[in-house]
Amino acid sequence: MNPSASRKAIIRTELPSAFTGFRTLLSKEIERFFRVAGQTILSPLISSSLYLLIFGVNLAKRIDIAPGVSYLQFIIPGLVAMGLLNNAFQNAASSIITSKFHGDFQDLRVVPLTPLQIVWAYACAATLRGVVIGLGVAMVGQIFHYTQYGSLLAIHSPLWLLFFAACSGVTFGCLGLCVAIYSRSFDQVSAVSTFVLLPLIYLGGVFFPLSIMPAFWQVVSLFNPLLYLINGIRYAFLGMSDISILPVALLASGFVLLAYTLALLAVKKGNYGRF
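^ thats the sequence. predicted structure below, dont judge the formating
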């Protein structure tokens, strides 16, 4: 048999086999969060609906943001970003920490999956959940917008929206993976979510523009990476942002690379053991 043909046959055999492992893990993660949709999908949508009702409807007429932009229009993209970021993080983190508790996460050390495949399986599943929540929040926001103004909120740039949604989902899916791998209890994951992630989200411009903050806190906020992701999504919806969109896009790409690198290192060297 021709050696060249033999090598090609081996490559054709190995590629589908490698992809099957990735697809299996990805399918498992997607099925997991759809299986408990009441907790993973419905609950975040109810929370966002309450934010829209309380802030977007009841307070909208008392708060001025910019000419031609109501407060309801301002917070819809902010809540979309918040739902996407938070749920992408929670999807990867909760799945891994639960697997570690049951003792089956260490099985990934012996299955025929590379660290790259493991990272991307968790990141893609996390991104999908984040996007599902983001779409749901956007639909609820459109309902509120229609009841208030008699029209739907037009999206300024669908391409930018896809870009920033993907960057946000992958970044926080990877970060959720890192946190869960190095955590030794549910409390440690919860502490990061409560005392680090949520404050950064709330201070990242979900409910207010950077311009209304005191000068000192405006400077401090520039070191908050979530400010750029939230502003990117808001620009995609409204065409307005606290920061020029090109630097925001470059930083968002950098966040993806950094989070992916950290996740890859965590998968290679992290703690897989049961706690």
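The mean pLDDT is 91.
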